[in-house]
Amino acid sequence: MDNKASWRLGKMLDNRYEILEILGIGGMAVVYKAFDHKLKRNVAIKVLRDNIAMDDEFRRRFRTEYQAVAMLSHPNIRAVYDVVSSGDTEYIVMEYVDGTDLKQYLKQKNRLPWKEALQLSVQIARALAHAHSKGIIHMDIKPQNIMLLKDGTAKVADFGIAQLDGDESGDQDETVGSIHYISPEQARGEATDARTDIFSLGVVMYEMLTGKLPFNGDTAGEVAIQHYSVIPDAPCQLYPEISDKLEAITLRAMQPNLEERYQSSEEMLTDLEDLCKSLHVPLGNGKEKSGRLSKAGRKGNSLETATSNDENVYVVHKNVPRISTMGELSKQGYVRRRMRAKRVSTLLGFGLVIVFSLGLFVFLWNYWLRGIFSDAERVDVPDFTGENIDDITSREDLTKTFNFTVVYAADSSHSVGTVTKQNPDAGASRMVIDEGIKVTLTVSSGIKLVTIPNIINNYYTDAEVALKALGLNVKEAKKGSSDVTENYVISVDPGVGTSVSAGSSVTVTISAGPDVQYVKVPNLQGAAEDDAVQQLQQLGLVCTQNEITYVTSSEDEKGFVLWQNYSGGTEVAANTKVYLTVGSGPSSTSGSGN
Predict the structure, then answer these.
(1) Exposure winner among 396, 459, 532, 562, fewest CB in 10 A?
(2) Residue where a domain stops, chosen among 95, 130, 153
(3) Domain for residue 244, yes or no?
(4) What string of pLDDT tens digits covers the 594 residues of the chain?
(5) Do 384 and 461 lie in a common domain?
(6) Is residue 477 part of a domain?
(7) Is 538 among the domain residues?
(8) How far apart are CA 125 and CA 489, in angstroms?
(9) What are residue 446's phi and psi, to 5 degrees?
(10) What is the 3-state secondary structure (H, E, C) of 415-467?
(11) Which domain holds residue 396?
(12) DSSP 218-286
């Protein structure tokens, strides 16, 4: 690990910020929890990693981040307090967020009640509207970059690859962002604008509502293609209780065609806030909270949700480009719209019945009726399983009657070339036709070898998807670590680069976070200095002469604790430094006047 990623705990930056612990290690930077001794508060410090510090492009992105975020001030955006250049070190001092990220929250709850998803969407949209008004595009909106505070406030974090609106200095051929959430124009490497954040927010909303991603595939390329070639299932089809208006907003945000998408985050925010008002769902913001974490949620489990009843007025189909409300229609206009929708639905229903009837007739004719009304010869499909494919395809009597399609699959339990499955099944009656009866044979290709990819320091679920795509069985093991962020991969067994057979089991060890013991700081105000130091040391806390400050006091307060940086009863990690202020008695220069 590079030297900035291994700064010793307790290091003091610029005689102000004391490093307490590592919060996370990303591709660009290391993030630490620190204590600001000047303002007496915890902060987060992001430092560019040494192994890329010499790369001009990464330095440009790092500077872009703090230049961009420093322009922002909003309760739903993680605040930047300070930007420091100290020698060859550049670091950002940010708001310390005591909570969890939306990805972890979704992992715990699977999917969110739609009213809770609506409240969080409003807060995220407010953050984006503020950033976009300053000309800043986030470019990496995803659940991992949305922090949830204990009081239910959502904060958009990590403008790590943000670019100033209109800045074309970056490489347009480089696809940035996380593949499941990027916009189609990002996936194609085209120029982007604020609408790319709107698309990503739509994907996040879809995941909150349904508990699954709208686009998935075995490779990053497959996922990217789906962003502009696949229409995902409508949320209401999966869970009918979801507000159809919220579904309409979500699907419009996810429109692959830029012109059919929301044209601004303000426009999308207006629809979200109007929906909240029409359904009496609290809007929620940095001051009036959308909900508070329950006792379980304060440990990272869940947010309380609104309880108002669903008041759906009419169905908005997923292809409607913009939602509207009852207040925007006259009574006559509303009736006409309902009648028109009813006529379309009736015609569509008749059409579907006709198509289904024709399909059913074709199926019955090919597989049953034609044999009854004709004198054509029928045969029973033989049992091909267990035979060698070469023996089957070399027999003229079989190839004359059957039209074989061969599909190879890795199978360690059968020898190479052995038929393991067939369709249709053995014994099925089929009519002999000129082109041959179609039979699909699945044939063993023996043991397939795959190579363990480099998933170290990847988020666990991403690593799991990559391994399962190779046909591997994944087992999970947890291990405490102070160097690797919680839920990120520490190691894999067999190791990276090892060739194993498909179907093998792979053990992935993920970080459970640092093994930290917590103790309660005693109330030391009024205690004698020696007694206070002894109490702290017995509890495993650090308090030496370096942590004690002496101030002028009355004679009665001399040698007694006047102040401590952690109030009595506060839980802190073992080995935490506790700072004391002790009275030194009256100043030696003071005296009585004559």
Answers:
(1) 396
(2) 95
(3) yes
(4) 444 444 567 788 888 889 998 887 766 678 889 999 988 899 999 887 766 666 666 666 666 666 667 778 889 998 888 877 666 677 888 889 888 889 999 999 999 999 999 999 999 999 999 999 888 888 889 999 999 988 889 999 877 555 544 444 444 333 444 788 988 888 777 788 899 999 999 999 999 999 999 988 777 777 777 777 778 888 998 999 999 999 999 999 999 888 999 999 999 999 999 999 988 887 754 333 334 443 334 333 333 323 222 322 222 333 333 333 333 334 444 345 445 545 555 565 666 677 777 777 766 666 555 555 555 678 899 999 999 988 998 888 898 899 988 877 767 678 878 999 999 999 998 888 888 899 999 888 666 677 899 999 888 888 888 888 787 888 888 888 877 888 889 999 999 888 877 777 899 999 887 777 788 999 999 999 999 999 999 998 999 988 898 888 888 889 999 989 888 888 888 888 899 989 888 876 544 444
(5) no
(6) yes
(7) yes
(8) 32
(9) 80, -155
(10) CCCEEEEEECCCCCEEECCCCCEEEEEEEECCCCEEECCCCCCCEHHHHHHHH
(11) 378-444
(12) SSHHHHHHHHHH--PPPHHHH-TTS-HHHHHHHHHHT-SSGGGS-S-HHHHHHHHHHHHHHTT-----S
Specify if 340 maps to a domain: no
Tell which of 328, 344, 364 closes a domain: 328
The count of domains in the chain is 5
Residue holding tokens 């800043």?
136
Q: Match 């597989």 to its residue by tokens.
A: 367
Kindly state the tokens that stand for 265.
Answer: 């985050």
What pTM value is reported for the model? 0.49
139 shares its domain with 185: yes
Look up the CATH number of the domain holding residue 141. Answer: 1.10.510.10
Q: Say whether both 427 and 547 belong to one domain.
A: no
Instruction: Report the C-alpha gap between 254 and 373 in whole angstroms.
Output: 52
Q: What whole-number distance in Å separates Cα of residue 454 and Cα of residue 238?
A: 35
